[in-house]
Amino acid sequence: MIAAARGLYAVARRWRQVLAHRDELYGINRRNVELVYAENPRRHYPIADDKLLAKQHLAAAGVPTPATLHVCEGLFAIPRVLAALADESQIVIKPANGAGGQGIVVLGERLGPGRWRKAGGDPYTVRELQRHLAEIVLGSHTDMLADQAFVERRIVPEPLFHELWTEGLCDVRVITHGAVPVMAMVRVPTRESDGRANLHQGGLGLAVELAHGRTFRAVHRGQAITHHPESNMPLVGLDLPRWDEVLAVARRAAAAVPLGYLGCDVVVDAVLGPLVLEINARPGLEIQNVHGYGLGRALAAAGCR
Amino acid sequence: MTRATHWVIAALLAIPAALIATKVAVLDYRMSDVLPRTEYHVSLTMTLDGHGRDVKIRTYLPVSDDHQAITAEQQSASELHLGFEAEAGDRLGVWTGGGVGDRAEARFAFSVLSEHVRYQLDPGIAVPASYPESVAPLLRPEESIQVDSPEIATLAHRLGADRGDVRSRLERIYGFTSAMAQRPFKGTTDALTALRLGEASCNGKSRLLVALARHVGIPARLVGGIILGRGSKKTSHQWVEVYVGGHWVPMCPTNHHFAELPASYLVLYRGDKSLFRHTADINFDYRFTITSDRVPSPKAKAAFRVFNVWALFDRLGLPFSLLRTILMLPIGALVVVVFRNVIGMPTFGTFLPALIAAAANETGAGWGLIAVLILVAIVFLARGAVHRLELLHSPTLAILLAAVAVAILGTALAADHVGLHRLTRITMFPLAVMAITAERFYLTLTERGGTSAGKELAGTLVVMLACHAVMGSLALQVMVIGFPEILLWVVAADIYLGRWVGVRLSEYLRFRPVLTPGSPS
Question: A interface toward B at CB cutoff 8 Å?
Fold first, then answer.
């Protein structure tokens, strides 16, 4: 009896706590109605969804982005692109309309004619590259019937980001509302996540204090952690390099497109500084779990609501 | 939610309410009118051994009247030819054949939509002094209806049936025969035998009732037919009609119906006759096989005066179940919306669960479930086999579809081989729905891995079963078919949910770190 009453009381307390925090939480319904539909007209989605189009808009506004070396518009363009890449190394091949890092191939040093080493170490041949370009332009990585592939110079990560993930790239996801940064997190790929910066697949999320660019919370598979589960590197209290510039490029990127609610993915190149990698018109909500509080509180703190 | 949205929702709620109120109050529309009716499909099969001789079979076939509507008559026969004859208001089917061999068969099938008929017998109707010429003979004795017997006279007097108005006389006679012990007696029982035994089968009780009624001056006659019900039967049934105030009023002392005829009674002939007459020594046998299904009542059909899809379906010969499925689909879609946006359950595609449920409406939910599981297993296996070839996306899908097509036919063949006839129905599952399910499953499996695909599969099956339960609800079907304007309420609910910004049930779990910070997640 007493145990049951205690249990009931605990449930009631927990529920009151849930209610107290529910108002600040943005679920999918609320995000879609209040942010995506309200701020991002559907006709402008392609600006965010098509990375080449996004880069054009950003470049026109003077926002720094990784340089596009080549564009492969269709099957016909593959021989030209392959010829142009013959002597290249340290490059990235991406589909213009890929989502979630799909279809991205990172090539490191050149091993010989038509042979490279991929990020992660595996060899990669020109035949594989040819097939990959064909798959991209035939729309394998998108919902559409066809797509474009493009080639970028590989980013050389700034040392702190390099230390977080030595085999590739960490980015900073900055949520902006009306071109004002609202929330930010560092997305760290891991071995477990197979090199992808996807939190659901075992990547790490580091919540960043907007004012100072200092990490204050780290999350791995929904659990708060303080040290990297693979390298044991401390993750909380890190001061991110060139933070003011990161926020500045995110602000300028958000102002450059007609989308009021954005996820700007910023990377920090050791030489070039902060570059906007891509923008997302429907950024995910997991950033709330990384911060431990809801988007509503962040919007209020930024003076947006 | 904006003001405009509120107004739209209010209008969508008010319009059907007003329409329904008008129908009920002004057009005197009742829910019972809309309830689907049971239509029986009767098939009479007759077999005989003709031994190479001439053969003749006569039986009574039903005629449409106020009580029963006979449609969709079909006949087939080997070595016999069917002709029709009229016999005092009854219809005879006469099968004749010359040099008919053994194991000859004749079949006659028809559909019946019948109504329960009730008569109000007014008190104070006196027994008339004379009857019209067509009715008067039905006061006379017959071979098995001994109207003039002293025993009948004594009983009529003892019952008090020889005094008073028509109704009270009939009530006494009916009360006596109805209370007699029931006896499952085969063959003919005449009125006197029934009286002496004090117990009888349906024809004995009916003959006694007829004899008593005629004795006290009320014309009466036997009625023969069968009682409709699913299954196979040989038993025919007899009851009675009495002539009151210019009407033939039915009553059945066996199953206790006074001045009413249940919908399940099928009238075949009137008078003291045999249902079958045939050439002797032909080893004649017969069987009525009866099935039934639900069809809309004519009154529900009549409600569709403006948006007359029913007339269209009747003209095109499309089944009622299809119209029902189409009308219920928006409700199924609303169920999906609730599961996705309020509960947060992932499914293959948006409305695939509703479509699968609609498809499973024809085959049963269990078969829908099995069809989806077989499909998913095939896609999973085929993908594993094709994966190594590293084919492009569309050709891979085409191969998976080929595997699905072959698997469905293979399943049907295997099921037929081992005698699992119900499983052969998997071929009835619409291929379009199968193809989309296969594609969605493959995409999820490829793009987001086995765990996501498994979750979506489970979600799809759960939502499919929920859709099936809701779309299969007879109460809802009757509501929507009788008042299709209810679909506007469904749209109102869709609009409300379309602007609903609440936290999905699954998100309470997903966002535990935000909702209950500090507690272990």
Answer: 14, 17-18, 21-22, 24-25, 27-30, 33-34, 102, 131, 134-135, 138-140, 219, 222-224, 285, 288-289, 291-294
CATH of the domain at B133: 3.10.620.30
Mark whether B74 and B149 lie in a shared domain.
no
HSE toward the beta carbon, residue A141, CA cutoff 13 A:
24
Residue B57 lies in a domain: yes
Strand order of the β-sheet with B265-270 is B257-258, B247-252, B237-244, B220-227, B265-270
Chain B residue numbers with beta carbons less than 8 Å from the beta carbon of A294 are: 511, 514
Q: Is residue B396 part of a domain?
A: yes
Q: pLDDT tens digits, chain B, 521 residues: what are they?
A: 678 888 998 999 998 888 888 877 777 666 666 677 788 999 988 888 888 888 888 999 998 888 888 888 888 888 888 888 888 888 888 888 888 888 888 899 998 988 888 888 888 888 888 888 888 888 888 888 888 888 878 888 887 778 888 888 888 888 888 887 777 766 778 877 887 777 778 888 888 888 888 888 888 898 999 988 888 888 888 899 989 888 889 998 888 888 888 888 999 998 888 888 888 888 888 899 888 877 767 666 666 666 677 777 778 877 777 888 888 899 999 999 999 999 999 888 788 888 888 887 766 778 778 888 888 888 888 888 887 887 777 788 888 888 888 888 888 888 888 877 667 777 777 777 888 888 888 888 877 788 888 998 999 999 999 999 998 887 788 778 778 888 999 999 999 999 999 999 999 999 998 998 876 54
Helical ranges in chain A per DSSP H:
2-22, 28-30, 37-39, 45-49, 51-60, 78-85, 126-137, 159-164, 243-256, 287-291, 295-301
Q: What residue type is B15 in one-letter code?
A: I
Asked whether residue B105 falls in the same domain as residue B121, the answer is no
Domain final residue, candidates B65, B84, B115? B115
Whether B100 and B121 share a structural domain: no
Q: Please check whether residue B222 lies inside any domain of the structure.
A: yes
Domains in chain B, number: 3
| A289:B502 CB<8 A | no
* Interface touch B511/A288, C-beta < 8 Å: yes
Q: Give A95's contacts in chain B (Cβ within 8 Å).
A: none
Tell me the pairing of strands B276-278 and B220-227: unpaired
One domain for residues B402 and B436: yes
In a domain, B6, yes or no: no
Cβ within 8 Å, pair B393-A293: no
Cβ-Cβ contacts under 8 Å between A and B: the total is 74
- Domain of B485 in residue numbering reads as 309-514
The reply to whether residue A223 touches residue B521, judged by beta carbons under 8 angstroms, is: yes
User: Using beta carbons and an 8 Å cutoff, which residues of B are at the interface with A?
Assistant: 341, 344, 390, 392-393, 447, 499-504, 507-508, 510-517, 519, 521
- pTM confidence score: 0.71
Q: Of B262, B295, B327, which one is at a domain's C-terminal end?
A: B262
Same domain, B234 and B199: yes
Q: Do the beta carbons of residue A97 and residue A141 sit within 8 Å? A: yes
Q: B62 and B169, same structural domain?
A: no
CB-based contact B392 A27, cutoff 8 Å: no
Nearest to A177 by CA among A267, A80, A281: A281
SS3 B1: coil
Whether residues B514 and A24 touch (CB distance < 8 A) is answered with yes
Query: Are A91 and A69 within 8 A, CB to CB?
Result: yes
For residue B503, give how far its alpha carbon lies from the nearest alpha carbon of chain A (Å): 5
Identify whether residues B420 and B401 lie together within a single domain: yes
